[in-house]
Design a protein that fits this description.
Strand content: 5-15%
Number of domains: 1
Number of strands: 7
InterPro entries: NAD(P)-bd_dom_sf, Sc_DH/Rdtase_CS, SDR_fam
Distance between the termini: 43 Å
Order of helices and strands: EHEHEHEHEHEHHHE
Shape: globular
Radius of gyration: 18 Å
Organism: Alcaligenes endophyticus
Low-confidence stretches: none
Helix content: 40-55%
CATH topology: Rossmann fold
Number of helices: 8
Strand order of the largest sheet: 3-2-1-4-5-6-7
Protein name: SDR family oxidoreductase
Keywords: Oxidoreductase
Family: Belongs to the short-chain dehydrogenases/reductases (SDR) family.
Mean pLDDT: 96
């Protein structure tokens, strides 16, 4: 195999993506679809699921609330049945959580963020890992963390706490699953262009009493390359990690963020 040919995942990979019908997850699904992978997604948004089925023929998926263990069990069971096994798990689903000073946060908001961003990762892993261990196609897990998983993030403490926890989960599982030839890595997106980031910026601007434009300028000033990244940047990194070129890359927290210096 030529070196350059190692840079893309082989056709036919069986890929399960949580939160895969919209946002970064949808772009990751598109990337795998473009290289000939078999893709199964779940998402809480029925309309997004209908849209991805229409736009990416062959991609299948079901609605699920990933904070609910029984629904995740159904996703993995149906996904593995449709795909005929599993080679790659992308634990992508997550929410932004509340914005505000810690004393202003509600217990409900905290628990919802932890359930969606952290507990769901465990729910998927416990059901998917036995199938990944049976794969002979460079089995791999990507857990989606954030630049908030390596930096302090004032006024976004529930989100940051879950994203730091995801790194610990990844590091531990890389060691645990290495002898079974299952790789585990984390992607840490930075300030990603799109509707979700626009909402985050607006909420934090409101919490700090400044304009949205001022808040956006502050975000960009904290980035070494002085620009946001795109969902396509993140998807390309996921595809690389699932390719033969990354066969010995595991246990890594990989920032795709143009080097965010602080938050």
């Amino acid at each position: 195999m030529k070196i350059a040919d190692r840079l893309l995942p082989p056709a036919g990979l069986r890929v399960l993506i949580s939160g895969g019908a919209a946002g970064i997850g949808r772009v990751i699904a598109q990337g795998f679809h473009e290289v000939g992978a078999q893709v199964f997604v779940c998402d809480i948004d029925e309309s997004a699921l209908a849209k991805i089925r229409q736009e990416l023929p062959g991609v299948e998926g079901i609605r699920a609330d990933v904070s609910q263990a029984t629904e995740v069990d159904q996703v993995v069971e149906q996904g593995v049945a449709r795909l005929g096994g599993l080679d790659v798990l992308i634990n992508n689903a997550g929410i932004a959580g509340p914005t505000g000073a810690v004393e202003s946060l509600t217990e409900q908001a905290w628990e919802q963020t932890v359930s969606t961003n952290l507990n769901s990762q465990f729910y998927f892993l416990r059901k998917a890992v036995p199938h990944l261990k049976q794969s002979r196609q460079n089995p791999h897990v990507v857990v989606m963390s954030s630049v908030a998983g390596r930096l302090a993030y004032p006024f976004r403490t529930p989100y940051a706490a879950t994203k730091w926890a995801v790194i610990g989960l990844m590091k531990s599982l890389a060691n645990e699953l290495g002898p079974d030839n299952v790789r585990v890595n984390a992607i840490l997106p930075g300030v990603v262009e799109g509707e979700r980031m626009s909402r985050v910026i607006a909420a934090r601007a409101d919490a700090l009493g400044i304009t949205t434009e001022q808040m956006q300028a502050q975000y960009v000033e904290k980035i070494s390359l002085r620009r946001m990244v795109t969902a396509e940047d993140v998807a390309a990194s996921v595809l690389y990690l699932s390719s033969p070129a990354a066969v010995n890359v595991t246990g890594q927290a990989i920032s795709v963020d143009a080097n965010v210096e602080y938050l």
